[in-house]
Structure formats: structure tokens, C-alpha cells
Amino acid sequence: MRYDKIQAVAFDAVGTLIEPWPPVAQAYRMAAAEQGVDLSGEVIRQRFGKAFSIDESSGEYRTDEFRERARWRRIVTECLPELTKSQADAAFDMLWDHFADASNWRLFADVEPVIGQLSEMGLKLCVASNFDSRLRRVWAGLDETGIDTHSLVISSEVGARKPGRQFYDAVLERLGHKASETLFVGDDLVNDVRMPRELGFDAVLIDRRGRVAESRGVSKLTEILPLFEATD
Length: 232
What we know:
Blueprint: E1 8-11, E2 18-20, H1 24-34, H2 41-56, H3 65-79, H4 85-98, E3 105-107, H5 111-120, E4 124-129, H6 134-142, E5 152-154, H7 155-158, H8 165-175, E6 182-186, H9 189-198, E7 202-205, H10 225-229
Parallel strand pairs: 1-4, 1-6, 4-5, 6-7
Antiparallel strand pairs: 2-3
């Protein structure tokens, strides 16, 4: 495949461009420890994976800032059931602020050079994420890529989460290009690949940890560059 018709690229955020650091399970473990409860990081990791997967499969795509905060409150409660209500409230507040702080996130090493080269090619770029307004603060503290905070498309602000169609319409509006001229790049097979393709986008899966069976995606962002460079 060659991306000779592509004029714009939409990147997912978490798992594609950025990752929490320390990892989520460690942050949750620290929050529980602040409340005097010692939990295994592996137990928390498994609980988080289950709670997040159930939430993602709910079929509820409508969202806003209030819904996102409530959603994460439920996930924290399910991950830390040993905490009393008052302890869980305190842990949630700590975690909410923790993940709003850019110092607790990091860019993947391949992000800056890839975005820099795509920008030099004249492509319009944006970040398209199922997040909330905290992403603006995180991105402002991390970004050295040239994608400014104006180019963030955030589900809580759009009013719909991926894979709701309203979200992808907002991406196209922000980029100013048709779906057929836009490449979607992300680490979620449904949200970032299958649904975009149904809507007419090109799409590529980035599978950094080899988690998707029979993946036809890439393991590094740099692997998409030759497909653009071969279009001359």
C-alpha cells in the first residue's frame, strides 16, 4: 500500500504517541498505599484490564467532562475494592490529578522524528483521543512535536467517544480533509482501524507490544514513513 492520496494523519494518543509513566498499575498501587492499603501491582493490572474492557464494550459513546470523571471513578472503585468509600474518594482524587500531570506521561521515542518528517511533507496532523480535557494540560507539558493543543480532538469535548461516528466527523472537521484523504493511526483495532476504515479512512494499527494476534500493523511509527516517501 502507498499513501499517495493521503493529505492528513490523525494519531490516537495513549498507546500510540504517549504512555503513562509510571505505568497505570503502579500509580493505582501508590494511591492505595496512601490510604494504608497494600495491593499487588499484578492484581491491580488484571483488575484494571478487566474494568477498562467492560467499560469500552458498553456501547455508550456519548460523553462529556462529567461522564468521563464518573467513568474513571467507577474504574478506580473496581480496581481498588478493598478501600472504604472515603478512602476510594481520596484515591480517586489523587489519581485524577496524577494523570493530569505531564510529568507522569512520556512520548514514545519514535514520535518526534515521525511527526517532524510528516510535517515537513506538508501533511496536516492532529491527535484524536478518547480522553478528557486533562489531555490539553498533559500535551502542553510534553509536546515538542509541533502538534499544538489546538490540534487535539478530545472525546469529552466532541460529545462522543470512538467508535461513535460523531467523533470521526469531528476529526475530519479539524483536519479539513475528506476521510479518503486521511490516515488514522492508533493501537486499538476497533477504534483506530476497523471503524475508520468503515467510514472511508485509510488506517494502520500500531501494535507496540505484539498484543494483537495476526496483526497486519506496524510495531513502530517509523514503519509508516516509507509508504509516504514512495509516493513521489
